[in-house]
Predict the structure.
Amino acid sequence: MKAGGKMKYDFDSPVSRRDSNSIKWESPQLLKNMEISNILPLWVADMDFVVAEPIRQALLKRVQHGVFGYSYVDESYYQAIISWYQRRHAFAIDRESICFSPGIVPGIAYLLRLLTQPGDAVLIQPPVYYPFAAEITNAGCQIVENPLLEDENGYYRMDFADLQEKAKQAKVMILCSPHNPVGRVWTEAELRQVADICFSHDVFVITDEIHNDLLRKNIRHICLASMYPEEQRLVTCLSASKSFNLAGLSCSSLIIPDPDLRRRYKEYLQQVVHVSSPSVLAQAAFQAAYLEGEEWLDQLCAYLDGSIVLVQQFLFEQLPLAVFYPPQGSYLIWLNVSAYVQDTQAFVRDLAIKTGVVLENGELFGAGGRGHLRLNIACPRGLLQRALQILAQQLKSV
Ligand SMILES: Cc1ncc(COP(=O)(O)O)c(C=O)c1O
């Protein structure tokens, strides 16, 4: 939002997600142990906000057409991605390098099958988005951990000395940038160091940048590939799905600069996955997001900034022993509550059953996650405040 700009979009009014097949609100698995009427879900990483109006209009227009036969991808779809990355991230994407994936996690899974042999070592930096570990195992590879270091303020850094050692045995590294769940947006110096270590040991880097548009005021995300325009041992994973709340449309892009890997990836999509382009609805929505969604996104980020201040004040007053460093990117809060509770797995389960507040247990994210909780704050502040009150009461009564 421009300085002094007014909010045009309303992020405060609750939007019912009932009867929309929302995993976060009403998945059958969730409702096994809980009453639907009192659920306050701060878990699955999507947003309880209506999409930007131009996206809705683009979808309505396409739906009104009424015919949804086989379709090709128009060049304008690719140009929308290219112009967004040029404008917002100063990242010049070569049109040829853009490849489709039905999601970032599937994309990473396919890449691992093309880049590794069973038994190869793949680096990750826990605590980290847990499907990385699952997909490494699914591909028959070994997980090698380069754990992040947490300081007493809850600020995380990379352990480069450890990475130097571990990179010697690794084939691939999956970098989470910005990082889910710790909320770091890596600096240019950090990115340079991690990439230089990897490339000097011939480690291929898959950089997952799905959270790259969700930034705090004055924080800048740098696309790793924009720093290494000639590097072939690098794939960037991108999508408008997090930024614009479109995850249910199953569409993302892998930017693959190496022509040989790109050819093999496209063959894999055609011969193994058998889904090689976005659906007509995804094309319409993603194109509208990148061409006309900027104002909404800026206002969303301003709203999230305010919600993070609210969380910070609440914690200061109600849970002074919780360690919290405001996330530089994403809408996820990573909270060290080890002064209140160690066994966060049992705590999260009991909290959900007793109160309806659903959070992610930090242990899921691997090494260093115990004693932590992950909260998704992409919801109206009224809901967030109610959930925080309940969380505080429960933590204080453990
Ligand atoms: C770092 C990261 N990568 C990937 C995803 C999911 O991507 P997709 O739904 O496109 O597979 C998420 C969702 O939370 C995420 O946080």
